Amino acid sequence: MAEQKQNPNSLNPKVSNETSNSSNKGSSFSGQKPHYQNPPDASIPDAATLRDQWRFAIRQYSRWYSQAWGTAILAGVSFFALGWIIKGSNPLPSRQEDPPHNPDHK
């Protein structure tokens, strides 16, 4: 008996033909299961893994949250300073001093 080297795609010629055809990639239904970049876990992970993933997610969220607040505060201070420079005084109208009241002026 002669042994033959088999290509893994040659076990199922229908699948190998569909995957090699680039025109099927644009179609909405190709008859195959979708290929995910990060496929879901086959089983539920253990508690330690879930705890580590949860801690990582909290750290990431906290970092993004603090960066967003820092950016917002920096932008607010920058725009306030820019307004002060352009106007030459306090740009907030609620903080302006009232002009002296003149009873003769109507």
Folded structure, characterized:
It is a single chain. The protein is mostly helical and 106 residues long. It has a domain at 47-86. It is 46% helix and 0% strand. It has 2 helices and no strands.
How would you concisely characterize the structure shown here?
By secondary structure, this protein is an all-alpha fold. The protein has two helices and no strands. Mean pLDDT is about 75; it is low at about 10-20.
Topology:
Elements lengths: L12 H8 L26 H41 L19
Keywords: Membrane, Transmembrane, Transmembrane helix
Rounded mean pLDDT score: 76
Low-confidence stretches: 10-18
- Biggest beta sheet summary: none
Which geometry do the CA atoms define? elongated
- Strand proportion, as a percent range, falls in under 5%
Query: Helix amount, in percent?
Result: 40-55%
- Please report the total strand number as a whole number: 0
Count of helical regions: 2
Kindly name the structural category: mainly alpha
**What is the H/E string?**
HH
Alpha carbon gyration radius? 33 Å
End-to-end distance, in Å? 115 Å
Characteristics:
single chain, 106 residues, mainly alpha, 46% helix, elongated
